[in-house]
Input
Amino acid sequence: MMNHTTWTWACHICGKTRPDEAISVFKRDESARINQPPGTMTRNIRYCNDDPRCTRLAPFQFLEANTHKQSDFKPGQSVMYVPMHAFGDIRHKDVEIGVVSSLSEHGDTVFVLFHGKRTSQGCNPDSLIPA
Output
């Protein structure tokens, strides 16, 4: 019988090698992307289950960088803010997750309420990734 406690895995978020009990797996069904029945194709992201940053960023690892418009966002939607100086690296220390609170009338700004803050911050839609 194999002893699974000696297995180690690399976290896809921070890159650290961790023991099996410190790693969780976020799974996503990708079957619809290839026009197949549910469960045909899944992708896994391994992340540190004792690190809040890794846990928070795991679901966003499946997203690809895109150019977004204000119309891609709706109030109440979860988003990831990736500042320009992060150059698209969603593992950057300044990446934040928040919730869209409102949209500007001019169509150029999305207001996001970030965790632990009382007021919304105006963001360029290009810096946001919808969840």
Summary: The chain is about 5% helix and 35% strand. The chain has two domains: 4-51, 70-130. The chain has a mean pLDDT of 84.
